[in-house]
Amino acid sequence: MKIHFVASSTETAQAALDRLSHQYGNVQLHAADVVVCLGGDGFMLEALHKVLDRSIAIYGMNYGTVGFLMNGAEEADLLQRLENAQPSVLHPLQMTATTVQGKVKTALAFNDVFLFRQTRQTSRIRVEVDGRMRLEELICDGIIVSTPAGSTAYNLSAHGPIVPLSANILPLTPISAFRPRRWRGALLPSSAVVKLTLLDTEKRATAAVADFTEIRDVAEVVVREDRSRQATILFDPDHGLSERIIAEQFVS
Questions:
Q1: Residues carrying CATH 3.40.50.10330, the chain
Q2: Residue 53, pLDDT score
Q3: Rounded distance, CA 175 to CA 177, Å?
Q4: If one looks up domain 3-91+230-248 in CATH, what number appears?
Q5: Cα–Cα–Cα angle for 223, 126, 214, nearest 5°?
Q6: d(CA 92, CA 233)
Q7: Exposed site from 17, 123, 138, 194, fewest CB < 10 Å?
Q8: Where are the alpha helices (DSSP H) in the chain?
Q9: Among 149, 156, 165, 182, which residue's Cα sits nearest to residue 60?
């Protein structure tokens, strides 16, 4: 099996890269059967974008902190682990953001797309789903549209629901909502198109983020799942992403 290793810039990950490359070889990406990613969840997200639409799967080894998207860092029997690994297919969200200057920018996200206030003042956001007005005005620090894979990340920290990978549901979760005070978010079908319009942009500047791409001073953001694009991530048996998402709901 021909492996292409990628590693984050941390000392621990770079040392693992040297050891594993020496033991298993390290071919160029175009010649590889599989990509092995050494680092944490943030670096895995970057690597997923690089293998997007390629017919090659990616296997993560945790040399970071949380490692929700990663497997253990045991380096022995790596070839056997790769042979036994089980795939999970992820589809990204597509964010189309229009700035107050009228520039249109797009980005993809495997975790989430979120808006957040740039100043001390709250954001005011109009929420539409599939062309239908759902909230005339949401006053908040921000709002998150999450994938199922990302529902255990920022979405969970903002008290959003954890969603099973096979549910075909996108959580929509406010960040510190002030009005409507009791609104806690919504669960949307994965086919939904979410349009977020920023109100009072001169006074209440707001940024939009898709994974690691940040766009400042947005006026409108449209989010939808892009089913035409995908990446495949590999997990050790009995430690797959679907199982992790379920298990996370029973953590006290």
A1: 3-91+230-248
A2: 83
A3: 6
A4: 3.40.50.10330
A5: 45
A6: 13
A7: 17
A8: 11-24, 41-51, 78-84, 154-157, 241-248
A9: 149
pLDDT at 220: 98
pLDDT number for residue 142: 97
User: CATH classification of 93-225 is 2.60.200.30, yes or no?
Assistant: yes
pLDDT at 243 (0 to 100): 78
End-to-end CA, the chain: 40
Average pLDDT, consecutive stretches of 10 residues, N- to C-terminus, the chain (252 residues): 96 96 95 96 91 92 87 91 93 97 97 96 97 97 95 92 88 96 93 97 95 96 96 86 76 70
Burial (Cβ within 10 Å: 0-12, 13-18, ≥19) of residue 24: middle
Cβ count near 227 (within 10 Å): 11
pLDDT the model gives residue 182? 87
Joined tokens for residue 96: 């189309």
Spatial strand order in the sheet of 57-62: 3-7, 34-39, 57-62, 231-235, 86-90
Decide: 28 and 79 in contact? Cβ < 8 Å: no
Q: Which residues participate in catalysis according to the annotation?
A: 41
pLDDT of residue 167: 84
Token pair 């549901």: residue = 169
pLDDT at 252: 65
The residues pairing with 223 across neighbouring beta strands, listed in sequence order, are 95, 194
Are 35 and 6 in contact by the 8 Å Cβ rule? The answer is yes
Structure tokens at 6: 């990628």
The answer to whether 219 and 248 have CB atoms below 8 angstroms apart is: no
CATH 2.60.200.30 boundaries in the chain: 93-225
